[in-house]
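Objective 1b. Sequence-to-structure analysis of Glycerol-3-phosphate-transporting ATPase.
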Amino acid sequence: MSTVFLTNVCKQYDSEKNVLNNVTAEIQSGEFFVIVGSSGCGKSTLLRMIAGLISITDGEIKIDDKVVNDLQPKDRNLTMVFQSYALFPFLSVWDNVAFGLKARKNLSQSEIASRVDNALKMVDLEGLKDRKPRELSGGQRQRVALARAVASDAKICLMDEPLSNLDAQLRIKMRQEIYALQRKLGLTLIYVTHDQVEAMTMADHIMVLHDSHVQQIGTPAEIYKKPANEFVASFFGVPPINILPAVKISGKKINVNNDFQMQIKQQVPVDNFKVGIRPNEVMIEAADELEANASIRTIEFLGDEKIVYAQMNNNNIEVAAIVPSDSQFKAFDTIKVSAGDNVLLFDNDGINITKNAEELVNA
């Protein structure tokens, strides 16, 4: 078992406000747990607190039912992969992987050799074991860091934005390799990233951090389909969800940004609120100036689809819509924007007030 419990974990530097406030989570043995958020939200700080590299101000961290608040990193039975790879430039690939094992003083030379050789085989670096880090590509250096984590035989692995220095195509490949390796070894993997695509494609559960607080913990599907608030909804999805002000007219009929009216699936408990519409749910059609409620600003061609960015007539709000690649829209066209009823609703504090299917049936 390698379960990690975080209970009301806080971090404060000097007299500043808390970098992290009351972070509580349960990370199950063998799961891929991703901590995601924008720069400066405290995600790397939290990872380093779990590792023991940074002390905690308040709260409790437990690993396998043992409180580790005051334990040194070497006593927590975990390993860490850093963004910068943290390789020794003067050592070979083999010696970089072996370095931490040799430092333990309790492993035989044969045991060290066996672990290192197996780890290098697992990440497909056997043929490069005698090279120095400067002779490797970015992806190969990252594999060395992974091999070092594998060789340690720790059941908990922490990764701090390990793919951020790689190009887009290599990131995709390394995502797949890390996920496959985690599944093969049964590691409890805690992974920090600012990339929502990495989070959605790899995680069993995601923790979303913002403004020093946990905004939501859930599966990728829960995070995307049932975001706790406006921030979570906006953070996930490319392009981001469109958030528009709305006013209740009567029943389930609403006025969106004073540009168009639509029917939604539920009664709204407040008169003024916000509507979240994913770009793939936005409908646009050509319209003359009298009928139009928006005008196209830019268009991005993505192969099998286009993203149309348009400015609504009121409040200068920009909306994004995904359309087929063969559509004939062009910049500065006037258009009519509308949407179906598959939307999210947020109160003026940004809290999700959308009812789920069961609530709608029982309403």
